[in-house]
Fold:
Amino acid sequence: MVICKSCGFIIEKGKLGDRCPACGVPAKMFLPHDEHISQKRKMLLSLDIHPVMVHFPQAFITTILLLSLASAALHGWVLPLVGATVKILCLLLPFTIAISFAAGLFDGKLRFRKVRTPLLIRKMVIGTVFFIIGCALFACAAGAPADAPLRFLLIAALAIPGLACAAILGKIGTSLINARFPG
Structure:
């Protein structure tokens, strides 16, 4: 394994071309790197279970917000379709958040051998807020006609802080992606 002195990107030496795939500096900027991690943990981390799972709630909350806002300009036959799409995404959102939360606990335990680190606790608090918002969106979607105009406004109003939670969680997550305890 080698690590880029410029950006910290880690890659197998045999897979390194003439430039860093992440930042583009010449290959001479790489140094030997020993990960000090068991093969089993390395394999499990390489699956990127949590980073992959978090894309579902992020995509759902973004689509919910955009379609809810777009509904103000829509009319005719397309409005019920948009309403049904928003409703389905709102109904699925809390489940995707819960699955991502569970994957995050697994990932945190795998990376740090515990989940009570400062950044992971912060992620759990923000994730809990995101889950509560997801449940509120679920309740809103379940209790009103799919194309009710006021429902779109309420959903958009709930989706904005939900999107903020998703963005904060993503930002914290990117700072942790290469962090791990040795062993």
Summary: The chain is about 65% helix and 5% strand. The radius of gyration is 21 Å. The mean pLDDT is 89.
